[in-house]
Amino acid sequence: MNVAKANEPAPAALPARKVDWAPLVLVPLLALAALPLVGSTATWTTLTIAALAMGMMIFIMASGLTLVFGLMDVLNFGHGAFITVGAYAGLIAAVPLAGWLASDQLAVNAVALIAIILVAMAVTGLVGYAFERLIVMPVYGQHLKQILVTMGGLIVIQQLVIVLWGPVQIPLAVPQALRGAFFFGDVAIEKYRLTAVVLGLMIFVAMQLVLTRTKLGLLIRAGVENREMVEALGYRIRRLFVGVFVTGSMLAGLGGVMWGFYRETLTPGMGLEVMVMIFIVVIIGGLGSVGGCFIGALLVALTANYMSFLAPKLALGSNIILMVAILLWRAQGLFPVAKRA
Amino acid sequence: MPEAASGSAAAAGAICAPLLALAGVHTHIGPYHILHGVDLAVPRGGLTVLLGRNGAGKTTALRTIMGLWRASAGRIDFDGRPIAALPTSDIARAGIAYVPETMGIFSDLTVRENLVLAARQGAMDADRLRWLFGLFPAIERFWQLPAGTLSGGQKQMLSIARAIIEPRQLILVDEPTKGLAPAIIANMVAAFRELKATDTTILLVEQNFLVARALGDNVAVMEDGRIVHAGAMAELAEDRSLQQRLLGLSLDMHQ
Ligand SMILES: Nc1ncnc2c1ncn2[C@@H]1O[C@H](COP(=O)(O)OP(=O)(O)OP(=O)(O)O)[C@@H](O)[C@H]1O
Ligand SMILES: [Mg+2]
Predict the structure, then answer these.
(1) Mean pLDDT rounded to a whole number for chain B
(2) Residue A117's pLDDT is what?
(3) Which pLDDT belongs to residue A15?
(4) Domain boundary among B167, B189, B205
(5) Full domain range(s) for residue A262
(6) Does ipTM exceed 0.95?
(7) Across chain B, where does the E strand assignment appear?
(8) A263-to-A87, A93, A174, A280, B114 alpha-carbon distances in Å
(9) Alpha carbon nearest to ligand 1 atom 7, residue
(10) For residue A140, how far is its CA from the centre of ligand 2 (angstroms)?
(11) Lower Cβ count inside 10 Å, N or C end of chain A?
Protein backbone atom coordinates (compact mmCIF):
# COMPACT_ATOMS: atom_id res chain seq x y z
CA MET A 1 0.00 0.00 0.00
CA ASN A 2 2.57 2.53 -1.04
CA VAL A 3 1.54 6.14 -1.02
CA ALA A 4 1.07 7.01 -4.65
CA LYS A 5 3.17 9.82 -5.96
CA ALA A 6 1.79 9.97 -9.45
CA ASN A 7 0.13 13.09 -10.79
CA GLU A 8 1.63 15.39 -8.26
CA PRO A 9 3.32 18.54 -9.44
CA ALA A 10 6.91 18.90 -8.35
CA PRO A 11 6.99 21.48 -5.58
CA ALA A 12 9.31 24.44 -5.77
CA ALA A 13 12.56 24.53 -3.83
CA LEU A 14 11.82 24.05 -0.18
CA PRO A 15 13.48 24.72 3.10
CA ALA A 16 14.84 21.40 4.30
CA ARG A 17 12.96 19.38 6.84
CA LYS A 18 14.60 19.88 10.20
CA VAL A 19 16.02 16.81 11.88
CA ASP A 20 16.31 16.78 15.65
CA TRP A 21 19.90 15.60 15.98
CA ALA A 22 20.56 16.10 19.68
CA PRO A 23 19.06 12.79 20.92
CA LEU A 24 20.77 10.87 18.10
CA VAL A 25 24.16 12.29 19.04
CA LEU A 26 23.62 11.20 22.63
CA VAL A 27 24.29 7.52 21.79
CA PRO A 28 27.83 7.85 20.35
CA LEU A 29 28.53 10.55 22.94
CA LEU A 30 27.69 8.21 25.79
CA ALA A 31 29.75 5.41 24.24
CA LEU A 32 32.78 7.67 23.71
CA ALA A 33 32.51 9.15 27.19
CA ALA A 34 32.70 5.65 28.63
CA LEU A 35 35.87 4.74 26.70
CA PRO A 36 38.41 6.52 28.95
CA LEU A 37 36.54 5.32 32.04
CA VAL A 38 36.60 1.70 30.95
CA GLY A 39 40.23 2.02 29.87
CA SER A 40 40.84 -1.02 27.70
CA THR A 41 39.55 -0.74 24.14
CA ALA A 42 38.91 -4.47 23.95
CA THR A 43 36.76 -4.46 27.06
CA TRP A 44 34.99 -1.34 25.91
CA THR A 45 34.21 -2.89 22.51
CA THR A 46 32.86 -6.04 24.12
CA LEU A 47 30.73 -4.03 26.52
CA THR A 48 29.44 -1.79 23.75
CA ILE A 49 28.51 -4.62 21.39
CA ALA A 50 26.79 -6.46 24.23
CA ALA A 51 24.90 -3.28 25.06
CA LEU A 52 23.88 -2.73 21.46
CA ALA A 53 22.56 -6.30 21.26
CA MET A 54 20.72 -5.83 24.52
CA GLY A 55 19.39 -2.46 23.35
CA MET A 56 18.06 -3.94 20.11
CA MET A 57 16.22 -6.63 22.03
CA ILE A 58 14.75 -4.10 24.41
CA PHE A 59 13.72 -1.98 21.45
CA ILE A 60 11.97 -4.90 19.79
CA MET A 61 10.17 -5.73 23.02
CA ALA A 62 9.24 -2.11 23.77
CA SER A 63 8.26 -0.79 20.33
CA GLY A 64 4.77 -2.26 20.43
CA LEU A 65 4.15 -0.87 23.88
CA THR A 66 4.96 2.69 22.90
CA LEU A 67 2.62 2.62 19.89
CA VAL A 68 -0.18 1.02 21.90
CA PHE A 69 0.12 3.81 24.42
CA GLY A 70 0.42 6.49 21.77
CA LEU A 71 -2.57 5.34 19.80
CA MET A 72 -5.12 4.68 22.53
CA ASP A 73 -3.55 5.94 25.77
CA VAL A 74 -3.58 2.36 26.94
CA LEU A 75 -1.15 1.54 29.72
CA ASN A 76 -0.49 -2.13 29.16
CA PHE A 77 1.33 -3.53 32.16
CA GLY A 78 0.69 -6.98 30.74
CA HIS A 79 3.11 -6.45 27.86
CA GLY A 80 5.79 -8.41 29.70
CA ALA A 81 3.62 -11.50 29.48
CA PHE A 82 4.02 -11.54 25.69
CA ILE A 83 7.80 -11.61 26.12
CA THR A 84 7.56 -14.67 28.36
CA VAL A 85 4.96 -16.35 26.17
CA GLY A 86 7.10 -15.72 23.08
CA ALA A 87 10.16 -17.30 24.62
CA TYR A 88 8.25 -20.36 25.84
CA ALA A 89 6.21 -20.71 22.67
CA GLY A 90 9.54 -20.86 20.85
CA LEU A 91 10.13 -24.10 22.73
CA ILE A 92 7.24 -25.68 20.85
CA ALA A 93 9.52 -25.62 17.82
CA ALA A 94 12.88 -25.61 19.62
CA VAL A 95 12.37 -28.95 21.37
CA PRO A 96 11.56 -31.05 18.27
CA LEU A 97 14.16 -29.12 16.26
CA ALA A 98 16.90 -29.49 18.89
CA GLY A 99 18.90 -31.61 16.45
CA TRP A 100 18.76 -28.90 13.80
CA LEU A 101 19.82 -26.25 16.29
CA ALA A 102 22.82 -28.39 17.24
CA SER A 103 23.77 -29.02 13.62
CA ASP A 104 26.99 -27.35 12.52
CA GLN A 105 25.48 -26.24 9.24
CA LEU A 106 24.40 -22.63 9.28
CA ALA A 107 21.49 -23.19 6.86
CA VAL A 108 19.98 -25.90 9.05
CA ASN A 109 20.37 -23.68 12.12
CA ALA A 110 18.75 -20.82 10.30
CA VAL A 111 15.73 -22.88 9.27
CA ALA A 112 15.22 -24.03 12.85
CA LEU A 113 15.64 -20.49 14.17
CA ILE A 114 13.14 -19.10 11.67
CA ALA A 115 10.67 -21.84 12.59
CA ILE A 116 11.06 -21.01 16.28
CA ILE A 117 10.55 -17.31 15.63
CA LEU A 118 7.48 -17.89 13.49
CA VAL A 119 5.86 -20.14 16.08
CA ALA A 120 6.65 -17.66 18.84
CA MET A 121 5.21 -14.75 16.88
CA ALA A 122 2.10 -16.66 15.85
CA VAL A 123 1.36 -17.67 19.44
CA THR A 124 2.01 -14.20 20.89
CA GLY A 125 -0.08 -12.68 18.12
CA LEU A 126 -3.02 -14.88 19.12
CA VAL A 127 -2.47 -14.28 22.82
CA GLY A 128 -2.21 -10.55 22.12
CA TYR A 129 -5.45 -10.57 20.16
CA ALA A 130 -7.29 -12.39 22.94
CA PHE A 131 -5.71 -10.12 25.55
CA GLU A 132 -6.90 -7.03 23.71
CA ARG A 133 -10.44 -8.35 23.31
CA LEU A 134 -10.93 -9.72 26.80
CA ILE A 135 -8.80 -7.47 28.97
CA VAL A 136 -7.95 -4.17 27.31
CA MET A 137 -11.07 -3.34 25.31
CA PRO A 138 -13.44 -3.23 28.31
CA VAL A 139 -11.28 -0.60 30.02
CA TYR A 140 -10.58 1.88 27.23
CA GLY A 141 -10.06 5.36 28.62
CA GLN A 142 -9.89 4.23 32.26
CA HIS A 143 -6.27 4.38 33.32
CA LEU A 144 -6.51 3.04 36.83
CA LYS A 145 -8.56 0.05 35.75
CA GLN A 146 -6.15 -0.53 32.87
CA ILE A 147 -3.23 -0.82 35.26
CA LEU A 148 -5.05 -3.23 37.55
CA VAL A 149 -6.63 -5.33 34.83
CA THR A 150 -3.56 -5.65 32.62
CA MET A 151 -1.45 -6.55 35.65
CA GLY A 152 -4.06 -9.18 36.46
CA GLY A 153 -3.74 -10.48 32.92
CA LEU A 154 0.03 -10.63 33.31
CA ILE A 155 -0.26 -12.73 36.46
CA VAL A 156 -2.78 -15.10 34.89
CA ILE A 157 -0.60 -15.63 31.81
CA GLN A 158 2.50 -16.12 33.92
CA GLN A 159 0.69 -18.77 35.94
CA LEU A 160 -0.47 -20.46 32.74
CA VAL A 161 3.15 -20.62 31.60
CA ILE A 162 4.04 -22.29 34.89
CA VAL A 163 1.18 -24.78 34.47
CA LEU A 164 2.23 -25.62 30.91
CA TRP A 165 6.01 -25.63 31.23
CA GLY A 166 6.68 -25.86 34.96
CA PRO A 167 8.22 -23.37 37.39
CA VAL A 168 11.85 -24.40 36.98
CA GLN A 169 14.15 -22.75 34.51
CA ILE A 170 14.56 -24.38 31.13
CA PRO A 171 17.90 -24.25 29.34
CA LEU A 172 17.93 -22.98 25.77
CA ALA A 173 21.16 -23.28 23.81
CA VAL A 174 22.13 -20.80 21.12
CA PRO A 175 22.15 -22.41 17.64
CA GLN A 176 25.50 -24.05 16.93
CA ALA A 177 26.57 -21.69 14.17
CA LEU A 178 25.92 -18.63 16.32
CA ARG A 179 28.01 -19.83 19.26
CA GLY A 180 31.47 -18.45 19.89
CA ALA A 181 32.94 -15.20 18.77
CA PHE A 182 34.78 -13.43 15.99
CA PHE A 183 38.20 -12.18 17.01
CA PHE A 184 39.72 -8.95 15.78
CA GLY A 185 43.08 -8.83 17.52
CA ASP A 186 42.21 -8.98 21.21
CA VAL A 187 38.65 -7.82 20.63
CA ALA A 188 36.08 -10.59 20.81
CA ILE A 189 32.62 -10.10 19.30
CA GLU A 190 30.11 -12.80 20.11
CA LYS A 191 28.33 -14.04 17.01
CA TYR A 192 24.95 -14.20 18.67
CA ARG A 193 25.18 -10.59 19.83
CA LEU A 194 26.11 -9.51 16.36
CA THR A 195 23.11 -11.41 15.01
CA ALA A 196 20.86 -9.67 17.52
CA VAL A 197 22.19 -6.27 16.46
CA VAL A 198 21.61 -7.01 12.78
CA LEU A 199 18.13 -8.39 13.39
CA GLY A 200 17.21 -5.43 15.60
CA LEU A 201 18.45 -2.94 13.02
CA MET A 202 16.47 -4.71 10.30
CA ILE A 203 13.31 -4.50 12.36
CA PHE A 204 13.89 -0.86 13.19
CA VAL A 205 14.44 0.01 9.53
CA ALA A 206 11.37 -2.00 8.51
CA MET A 207 9.24 -0.23 11.10
CA GLN A 208 10.51 3.16 9.99
CA LEU A 209 9.73 2.32 6.38
CA VAL A 210 6.21 1.23 7.24
CA LEU A 211 5.62 4.26 9.42
CA THR A 212 6.93 6.80 6.93
CA ARG A 213 6.27 5.28 3.51
CA THR A 214 2.92 3.52 3.70
CA LYS A 215 -0.56 4.85 4.18
CA LEU A 216 -1.03 2.41 7.04
CA GLY A 217 2.03 3.83 8.77
CA LEU A 218 0.88 7.40 8.20
CA LEU A 219 -2.47 6.48 9.73
CA ILE A 220 -0.78 5.04 12.79
CA ARG A 221 1.32 8.18 13.26
CA ALA A 222 -1.70 10.38 12.64
CA GLY A 223 -3.70 8.34 15.15
CA VAL A 224 -1.02 8.74 17.80
CA GLU A 225 -1.37 12.49 17.43
CA ASN A 226 -5.14 12.84 17.03
CA ARG A 227 -7.29 9.75 16.84
CA GLU A 228 -10.56 11.68 16.57
CA MET A 229 -9.37 13.31 13.37
CA VAL A 230 -8.37 9.96 11.92
CA GLU A 231 -11.92 8.78 12.57
CA ALA A 232 -13.34 11.98 11.10
CA LEU A 233 -11.37 11.31 7.92
CA GLY A 234 -13.21 8.01 7.65
CA TYR A 235 -10.87 5.44 9.16
CA ARG A 236 -11.68 3.01 11.95
CA ILE A 237 -9.16 3.70 14.67
CA ARG A 238 -10.32 0.61 16.53
CA ARG A 239 -9.18 -1.71 13.74
CA LEU A 240 -5.91 0.15 13.48
CA PHE A 241 -5.39 -0.24 17.19
CA VAL A 242 -6.08 -3.97 17.22
CA GLY A 243 -3.59 -4.37 14.38
CA VAL A 244 -0.95 -2.40 16.24
CA PHE A 245 -1.64 -4.28 19.47
CA VAL A 246 -1.29 -7.67 17.80
CA THR A 247 1.85 -6.60 15.92
CA GLY A 248 3.30 -5.21 19.14
CA SER A 249 2.57 -8.51 20.89
CA MET A 250 4.26 -10.43 18.08
CA LEU A 251 7.33 -8.22 18.31
CA ALA A 252 7.40 -8.75 22.07
CA GLY A 253 7.28 -12.47 21.34
CA LEU A 254 10.18 -12.17 18.92
CA GLY A 255 12.06 -10.14 21.52
CA GLY A 256 11.30 -12.88 24.04
CA VAL A 257 12.87 -15.54 21.82
CA MET A 258 15.97 -13.43 21.24
CA TRP A 259 16.19 -12.60 24.91
CA GLY A 260 15.76 -16.28 25.82
CA PHE A 261 18.68 -17.31 23.58
CA TYR A 262 20.72 -14.45 25.00
CA ARG A 263 20.18 -15.63 28.58
CA GLU A 264 20.31 -19.28 27.47
CA THR A 265 17.62 -20.11 30.00
CA LEU A 266 13.90 -19.47 30.26
CA THR A 267 12.07 -18.59 33.47
CA PRO A 268 8.40 -17.72 33.90
CA GLY A 269 9.39 -14.35 35.34
CA MET A 270 11.71 -13.32 32.48
CA GLY A 271 9.23 -10.95 30.89
CA LEU A 272 8.48 -9.18 34.11
CA GLU A 273 12.20 -8.77 34.79
CA VAL A 274 12.73 -6.55 31.77
CA MET A 275 9.49 -4.61 32.11
CA VAL A 276 10.99 -1.93 34.35
CA MET A 277 13.66 -1.30 31.75
CA ILE A 278 11.07 -1.30 28.98
CA PHE A 279 8.91 1.26 30.73
CA ILE A 280 11.96 3.45 31.27
CA VAL A 281 12.79 3.16 27.57
CA VAL A 282 9.25 4.05 26.51
CA ILE A 283 9.15 7.05 28.85
CA ILE A 284 12.54 8.51 27.94
CA GLY A 285 11.89 7.92 24.25
CA GLY A 286 8.69 9.96 24.35
CA LEU A 287 5.41 8.05 24.68
CA GLY A 288 4.30 6.97 21.21
CA SER A 289 7.61 7.60 19.44
CA VAL A 290 9.25 4.60 17.76
CA GLY A 291 12.44 6.54 17.00
CA GLY A 292 12.62 7.67 20.61
CA CYS A 293 12.06 4.11 21.76
CA PHE A 294 15.02 2.99 19.64
CA ILE A 295 17.41 5.66 20.94
CA GLY A 296 16.09 5.19 24.47
CA ALA A 297 16.72 1.44 24.33
CA LEU A 298 20.30 1.97 23.20
CA LEU A 299 20.94 4.56 25.91
CA VAL A 300 19.48 2.38 28.64
CA ALA A 301 21.44 -0.68 27.54
CA LEU A 302 24.73 1.22 27.19
CA THR A 303 24.29 2.82 30.60
CA ALA A 304 23.41 -0.48 32.24
CA ASN A 305 26.40 -2.28 30.68
CA TYR A 306 29.03 0.36 31.38
CA MET A 307 27.79 0.85 34.92
CA SER A 308 27.75 -2.85 35.69
CA PHE A 309 31.42 -2.87 34.71
CA LEU A 310 32.47 0.42 36.30
CA ALA A 311 30.37 0.44 39.45
CA PRO A 312 28.32 -2.75 39.80
CA LYS A 313 26.66 -1.45 42.94
CA LEU A 314 25.21 1.49 41.07
CA ALA A 315 24.09 -0.52 38.04
CA LEU A 316 20.60 -1.00 39.33
CA GLY A 317 19.93 2.66 39.92
CA SER A 318 21.77 3.92 36.85
CA ASN A 319 18.77 3.66 34.55
CA ILE A 320 16.62 5.61 36.93
CA ILE A 321 19.31 8.29 37.02
CA LEU A 322 19.43 8.26 33.21
CA MET A 323 15.67 8.66 33.05
CA VAL A 324 15.65 11.56 35.48
CA ALA A 325 18.47 13.27 33.61
CA ILE A 326 16.72 12.93 30.26
CA LEU A 327 13.37 14.06 31.61
CA LEU A 328 15.04 17.11 33.15
CA TRP A 329 16.41 17.91 29.71
CA ARG A 330 13.22 17.06 27.81
CA ALA A 331 10.22 16.58 30.04
CA GLN A 332 8.22 14.82 27.31
CA GLY A 333 11.04 12.43 26.41
CA LEU A 334 13.66 12.51 23.67
CA PHE A 335 11.20 12.83 20.81
CA PRO A 336 8.03 14.37 22.22
CA VAL A 337 4.97 13.28 20.28
CA ALA A 338 2.54 16.07 19.47
CA LYS A 339 -0.80 15.44 21.08
CA ARG A 340 -4.12 17.03 20.34
CA ALA A 341 -4.59 20.04 22.62
CA MET B 1 -38.48 6.67 17.21
CA PRO B 2 -41.05 6.52 14.40
CA GLU B 3 -38.86 4.59 11.96
CA ALA B 4 -41.57 3.34 9.62
CA ALA B 5 -43.26 6.71 9.21
CA SER B 6 -40.01 8.55 8.51
CA GLY B 7 -38.99 5.97 5.92
CA SER B 8 -41.93 6.63 3.66
CA ALA B 9 -41.80 10.35 4.33
CA ALA B 10 -38.16 10.42 3.23
CA ALA B 11 -39.06 8.68 0.00
CA ALA B 12 -41.88 11.08 -0.72
CA GLY B 13 -39.95 14.27 -0.02
CA ALA B 14 -36.52 13.22 -1.29
CA ILE B 15 -36.16 16.07 -3.76
CA CYS B 16 -36.75 19.00 -1.46
CA ALA B 17 -35.68 17.29 1.75
CA PRO B 18 -32.71 18.91 3.43
CA LEU B 19 -29.37 17.17 3.00
CA LEU B 20 -28.86 17.19 6.74
CA ALA B 21 -31.59 17.38 9.33
CA LEU B 22 -31.32 17.42 13.11
CA ALA B 23 -34.51 16.96 15.08
CA GLY B 24 -34.71 17.36 18.84
CA VAL B 25 -31.04 16.56 19.33
CA HIS B 26 -29.78 16.51 22.90
CA THR B 27 -26.12 16.08 23.77
CA HIS B 28 -24.61 15.43 27.15
CA ILE B 29 -20.90 15.74 27.80
CA GLY B 30 -20.30 13.81 30.98
CA PRO B 31 -22.66 15.32 33.54
CA TYR B 32 -23.28 18.47 31.48
CA HIS B 33 -26.35 18.86 29.33
CA ILE B 34 -25.12 20.95 26.39
CA LEU B 35 -27.59 20.64 23.50
CA HIS B 36 -31.23 20.98 24.51
CA GLY B 37 -33.18 19.79 21.52
CA VAL B 38 -31.52 21.18 18.41
CA ASP B 39 -33.65 21.36 15.26
CA LEU B 40 -31.63 22.26 12.22
CA ALA B 41 -32.13 21.73 8.50
CA VAL B 42 -29.28 22.20 6.04
CA PRO B 43 -30.65 22.47 2.49
CA ARG B 44 -28.82 20.87 -0.40
CA GLY B 45 -26.32 22.88 -2.34
CA GLY B 46 -26.18 26.07 -0.33
CA LEU B 47 -24.08 27.42 2.47
CA THR B 48 -25.74 27.53 5.85
CA VAL B 49 -24.15 29.64 8.55
CA LEU B 50 -24.48 28.67 12.17
CA LEU B 51 -24.17 31.74 14.38
CA GLY B 52 -24.21 32.11 18.13
CA ARG B 53 -22.31 33.53 21.05
CA ASN B 54 -19.35 31.81 22.66
CA GLY B 55 -20.50 28.73 24.47
CA ALA B 56 -23.83 28.56 22.63
CA GLY B 57 -23.09 25.00 21.54
CA LYS B 58 -22.04 25.39 17.89
CA THR B 59 -18.95 23.23 18.16
CA THR B 60 -20.88 20.69 20.17
CA ALA B 61 -23.51 20.56 17.43
CA LEU B 62 -20.90 19.87 14.74
CA ARG B 63 -19.19 17.25 16.88
CA THR B 64 -22.53 15.59 17.50
CA ILE B 65 -23.23 15.46 13.76
CA MET B 66 -19.81 13.83 13.25
CA GLY B 67 -20.54 11.32 16.02
CA LEU B 68 -17.65 12.60 18.13
CA TRP B 69 -20.19 13.26 20.85
CA ARG B 70 -23.22 10.99 20.95
CA ALA B 71 -26.69 12.49 20.79
CA SER B 72 -28.52 11.30 23.88
CA ALA B 73 -31.90 11.94 22.24
CA GLY B 74 -33.28 13.08 18.91
CA ARG B 75 -32.40 12.08 15.37
CA ILE B 76 -29.90 13.11 12.76
CA ASP B 77 -30.57 12.29 9.11
CA PHE B 78 -28.09 12.70 6.31
CA ASP B 79 -29.31 12.27 2.78
CA GLY B 80 -32.45 10.59 4.12
CA ARG B 81 -30.51 8.12 6.25
CA PRO B 82 -30.26 8.14 10.07
CA ILE B 83 -26.63 8.58 11.09
CA ALA B 84 -26.84 9.30 14.82
CA ALA B 85 -25.91 5.74 15.74
CA LEU B 86 -23.11 5.31 13.19
CA PRO B 87 -19.47 5.37 14.20
CA THR B 88 -17.63 8.55 13.20
CA SER B 89 -15.70 6.82 10.43
CA ASP B 90 -18.94 5.66 8.78
CA ILE B 91 -20.42 9.14 9.05
CA ALA B 92 -17.34 10.45 7.26
CA ARG B 93 -17.64 7.77 4.61
CA ALA B 94 -21.28 8.65 4.08
CA GLY B 95 -19.94 11.90 2.61
CA ILE B 96 -19.42 14.38 5.44
CA ALA B 97 -16.09 16.10 5.93
CA TYR B 98 -15.16 17.98 9.07
CA VAL B 99 -12.87 20.96 9.65
CA PRO B 100 -12.71 21.24 13.44
CA GLU B 101 -12.22 24.42 15.39
CA THR B 102 -8.81 23.09 16.46
CA MET B 103 -8.05 22.22 12.82
CA GLY B 104 -6.92 18.70 13.67
CA ILE B 105 -3.76 18.90 11.60
CA PHE B 106 -1.33 15.99 11.91
CA SER B 107 1.71 18.10 12.69
CA ASP B 108 4.21 15.26 12.52
CA LEU B 109 3.11 14.45 8.96
CA THR B 110 3.95 16.57 5.95
CA VAL B 111 1.36 18.71 4.20
CA ARG B 112 1.28 16.14 1.44
CA GLU B 113 0.84 13.22 3.85
CA ASN B 114 -2.04 15.02 5.54
CA LEU B 115 -3.77 15.18 2.18
CA VAL B 116 -2.85 11.60 1.28
CA LEU B 117 -4.77 10.41 4.33
CA ALA B 118 -7.74 12.61 3.49
CA ALA B 119 -7.92 11.14 -0.02
CA ARG B 120 -9.57 7.85 0.80
CA GLN B 121 -9.94 6.64 -2.77
CA GLY B 122 -6.21 6.22 -3.27
CA ALA B 123 -4.11 8.51 -5.41
CA MET B 124 -4.98 12.18 -5.33
CA ASP B 125 -6.61 13.49 -8.47
CA ALA B 126 -4.19 15.77 -10.35
CA ASP B 127 -6.81 18.24 -11.57
CA ARG B 128 -8.36 18.49 -8.15
CA LEU B 129 -4.94 19.06 -6.66
CA ARG B 130 -4.19 21.85 -9.12
CA TRP B 131 -7.52 23.42 -8.23
CA LEU B 132 -6.61 23.19 -4.53
CA PHE B 133 -3.22 24.79 -5.15
CA GLY B 134 -5.07 27.61 -6.88
CA LEU B 135 -7.31 28.10 -3.87
CA PHE B 136 -4.51 27.82 -1.33
CA PRO B 137 -1.06 28.45 -2.81
CA ALA B 138 0.60 27.83 0.56
CA ILE B 139 -0.32 24.16 0.27
CA GLU B 140 1.83 23.81 -2.82
CA ARG B 141 4.66 25.88 -1.42
CA PHE B 142 4.98 23.83 1.79
CA TRP B 143 4.06 20.50 0.20
CA GLN B 144 6.88 18.49 1.79
CA LEU B 145 7.15 20.30 5.11
CA PRO B 146 5.82 18.90 8.38
CA ALA B 147 2.39 20.43 8.85
CA GLY B 148 3.36 21.43 12.38
CA THR B 149 5.66 24.10 10.95
CA LEU B 150 2.84 25.92 9.14
CA SER B 151 1.40 29.19 10.44
CA GLY B 152 -2.08 29.23 11.95
CA GLY B 153 -3.68 30.45 8.75
CA GLN B 154 -1.82 27.92 6.64
CA LYS B 155 -2.92 25.14 8.95
CA GLN B 156 -6.50 26.31 8.58
CA MET B 157 -6.14 26.13 4.81
CA LEU B 158 -4.64 22.67 5.01
CA SER B 159 -7.50 21.55 7.21
CA ILE B 160 -10.01 22.82 4.65
CA ALA B 161 -8.00 21.35 1.79
CA ARG B 162 -8.14 17.99 3.53
CA ALA B 163 -11.91 18.21 3.67
CA ILE B 164 -12.23 18.90 -0.05
CA ILE B 165 -9.37 16.89 -1.58
CA GLU B 166 -12.09 14.55 -2.79
CA PRO B 167 -15.65 15.70 -3.53
CA ARG B 168 -17.84 15.38 -0.46
CA GLN B 169 -21.54 16.04 -0.17
CA LEU B 170 -21.38 18.07 3.01
CA ILE B 171 -18.58 19.96 4.73
CA LEU B 172 -18.76 21.06 8.33
CA VAL B 173 -16.42 23.97 9.02
CA ASP B 174 -15.92 25.38 12.51
CA GLU B 175 -14.77 29.01 12.65
CA PRO B 176 -12.21 28.99 9.85
CA THR B 177 -11.48 32.71 10.12
CA LYS B 178 -10.65 32.69 13.81
CA GLY B 179 -7.44 34.61 14.41
CA LEU B 180 -6.74 35.27 10.75
CA ALA B 181 -5.52 38.56 9.28
CA PRO B 182 -8.07 40.44 7.13
CA ALA B 183 -6.23 39.68 3.88
CA ILE B 184 -6.26 35.98 4.67
CA ILE B 185 -9.94 36.15 5.58
CA ALA B 186 -10.62 37.62 2.14
CA ASN B 187 -8.69 34.75 0.59
CA MET B 188 -10.74 32.30 2.66
CA VAL B 189 -14.02 33.91 1.62
CA ALA B 190 -13.00 33.65 -2.02
CA ALA B 191 -12.14 29.98 -1.52
CA PHE B 192 -15.54 29.27 0.01
CA ARG B 193 -17.24 31.10 -2.85
CA GLU B 194 -15.46 28.86 -5.29
CA LEU B 195 -16.33 25.80 -3.25
CA LYS B 196 -19.99 26.80 -3.26
CA ALA B 197 -19.87 26.81 -7.03
CA THR B 198 -18.89 23.12 -7.00
CA ASP B 199 -22.22 21.92 -5.71
CA THR B 200 -20.88 21.19 -2.24
CA THR B 201 -23.18 21.80 0.70
CA ILE B 202 -21.49 23.66 3.52
CA LEU B 203 -22.42 24.15 7.14
CA LEU B 204 -20.23 26.95 8.44
CA VAL B 205 -19.85 28.09 12.02
CA GLU B 206 -18.78 31.70 11.88
CA GLN B 207 -18.50 34.50 14.44
CA ASN B 208 -17.51 37.16 11.95
CA PHE B 209 -20.87 38.45 10.77
CA LEU B 210 -19.42 40.13 7.70
CA VAL B 211 -18.02 36.82 6.52
CA ALA B 212 -21.26 35.09 7.42
CA ARG B 213 -23.29 37.63 5.46
CA ALA B 214 -20.98 37.46 2.48
CA LEU B 215 -21.18 33.68 2.19
CA GLY B 216 -24.41 32.51 3.73
CA ASP B 217 -27.52 31.51 1.84
CA ASN B 218 -29.22 30.42 5.02
CA VAL B 219 -28.57 31.10 8.64
CA ALA B 220 -29.37 29.48 11.94
CA VAL B 221 -28.68 31.08 15.29
CA MET B 222 -27.92 29.09 18.42
CA GLU B 223 -28.36 30.08 22.00
CA ASP B 224 -27.89 27.93 25.07
CA GLY B 225 -27.98 24.69 23.12
CA ARG B 226 -31.04 25.48 21.00
CA ILE B 227 -31.69 26.95 17.56
CA VAL B 228 -33.50 30.23 18.24
CA HIS B 229 -33.72 31.49 14.67
CA ALA B 230 -33.49 29.93 11.22
CA GLY B 231 -34.13 31.45 7.85
CA ALA B 232 -32.61 33.11 4.80
CA MET B 233 -29.41 35.09 5.33
CA ALA B 234 -30.79 37.99 3.31
CA GLU B 235 -33.57 38.41 5.80
CA LEU B 236 -31.25 38.61 8.79
CA ALA B 237 -28.77 40.81 6.94
CA GLU B 238 -31.44 43.43 6.36
CA ASP B 239 -33.12 43.33 9.73
CA ARG B 240 -31.07 45.34 12.21
CA SER B 241 -33.41 44.78 15.10
CA LEU B 242 -33.34 41.02 14.52
CA GLN B 243 -29.53 41.14 14.51
CA GLN B 244 -29.59 43.18 17.68
CA ARG B 245 -31.92 40.72 19.35
CA LEU B 246 -30.22 37.52 18.19
CA LEU B 247 -26.58 38.45 18.09
CA GLY B 248 -26.46 41.48 20.35
CA LEU B 249 -24.99 43.53 17.56
CA SER B 250 -25.85 45.45 14.52
CA LEU B 251 -23.82 45.58 11.36
CA ASP B 252 -22.70 49.11 12.17
CA MET B 253 -20.48 47.80 14.92
CA HIS B 254 -18.54 45.78 12.38
CA GLN B 255 -17.97 48.58 9.97
N1 LIG C 1 -15.54 18.70 26.82
C2 LIG C 1 -16.44 19.47 27.45
N3 LIG C 1 -16.74 19.22 28.73
C4 LIG C 1 -17.65 19.97 29.39
N5 LIG C 1 -18.29 20.99 28.85
C6 LIG C 1 -18.03 21.30 27.59
C7 LIG C 1 -17.09 20.56 26.82
N8 LIG C 1 -17.03 21.09 25.59
C9 LIG C 1 -17.88 22.13 25.60
N10 LIG C 1 -18.49 22.25 26.79
C11 LIG C 1 -19.47 23.26 27.18
O12 LIG C 1 -20.51 23.23 26.24
C13 LIG C 1 -20.96 24.53 25.97
C14 LIG C 1 -20.96 24.74 24.48
O15 LIG C 1 -19.64 24.68 24.02
P16 LIG C 1 -19.28 24.79 22.50
O17 LIG C 1 -17.80 24.59 22.37
O18 LIG C 1 -20.15 23.90 21.72
O19 LIG C 1 -19.64 26.29 22.20
P20 LIG C 1 -19.39 27.16 20.90
O21 LIG C 1 -20.69 27.71 20.50
O22 LIG C 1 -18.66 26.38 19.90
O23 LIG C 1 -18.48 28.32 21.49
P24 LIG C 1 -17.28 29.13 20.79
O25 LIG C 1 -17.89 30.13 19.92
O26 LIG C 1 -16.58 29.75 21.95
O27 LIG C 1 -16.44 28.13 20.07
C28 LIG C 1 -20.05 25.48 26.72
O29 LIG C 1 -20.74 25.92 27.87
C30 LIG C 1 -18.88 24.65 27.08
O31 LIG C 1 -18.38 25.04 28.32
MG1 LIG D 1 -16.82 26.51 19.10
Answers:
(1) 90
(2) 96
(3) 54
(4) B167
(5) 41-268
(6) no
(7) 20-29, 32-42, 47-52, 71-78, 81-82, 96-99, 170-174, 201-205, 218-223, 226-232
(8) 11, 18, 9, 21, 44
(9) B29
(10) 27
(11) C
